[in-house]
Amino acid sequence: MTDRWVRIARVAWLVLLAALLLRALVGNRDAVIELARVDRPWLLAAALALSFGQLALSASFWVRALAATGQRVGWSTVLGATARSVPARYVPGSVWYAISRGAMLRAAGIRLGALTVTAVLESVLTVLVSLGLGGALLAAAGRLPGQQLTAVAWVLALAVLTAPPVLNRALGWLAARRGATAPTLSWRDLAALVLWMTAFWALSAATFAVYLAAFGMDVPAAPVVAGVFLVAWAIGFLTPIAPQGAGAFEVVFVAMLVGGADGPLLVVVAAFRALIGVRDAVAFGWGAWRGPSPRPGVSPATQPEQAPR
User: Fold this and answer.
1) Which class for 223: exposed (0-12), middle (13-18), buried (19 or more C-beta within 10 A)?
2) pLDDT tens-digit profile of 88-112?
């Protein structure tokens, strides 16, 4: 029953979102037409190029996380599975991308338990790092009370939440809910994973800032744009009725950045998904052309035993 109501809420949310976007387009059509000419088109190309780095860093995170669970797998194998899984990003719900990638890596010989733990790690660190990094940027720019003091508090909170005694306990509980057993991660493992996740979100924020700069809009400096992007994305990710944060991210971003409604800015922010859609189409085409990696992509030392028939 709960799942049914969540699906209904998602459909209602998407209908409302479409209506709001249509209203913004119609009510600001002259400004939108002017923006569609793009003030700096080369920055759009740069943003598209940078967005491919997100897939590479995401694959690197999975390689390192799987290694922490005892599974050694080649980076190219994970990158191929990542590229072929991107269509799942457009399925309502925030878990299908990880599930699709996990299924493809499972076919390549990775243990299901290791894949489950990696997916949980990715979800947990995604929220913690994006909020921590975004909050630190906003505080350093004076957009949060306390300025630098708040930035230090954000970083300290991130450090506490990602410390092994705290994160291992949370990871074990989440993995158990999914029928898996989480390994005890060392300080070295977690430090490496946090660094990979920080690199991913730093590049993601930079990609969006470059994209927004292409339109020549009157917006705050790039560090503020990046900080708002990170916090707004995390809020969208945590919104259960918004597929991939659609609508929630855009509304929160505009409200945080300019302090109110801004039709043209909302349209431009929403159009960022079109740029990522182009990236995903190219990546999927490459992944489909490349095809799945053979099972030897998994290290023989960690090759799982065949399940009894």
Assistant:
1) middle
2) 887 766 677 888 898 899 888 888 8
Residue 299 exposed, middle or buried by CB count within 10 Å (0-12, 13-18, 19+): middle
Separation CA 242–CA 258 (nearest Å): 22
CA distance 292 to 287: 8
- The three-point CA angle 77-100-58 to 5° equals 55
Sign of the Cα torsion 178, 125, 293, 207 reads positive
Q: How far apart are CA 5 and CA 114, in angstroms?
A: 32
User: What was the pLDDT predicted at 208?
Assistant: 96
Record the pTM: 0.80
Q: What is the pLDDT of residues 130-148, one digit of tens each?
A: 988 898 888 877 777 555 5
How far apart, in whole angstroms, are the C-alpha atoms of residue 4 and residue 6? 5
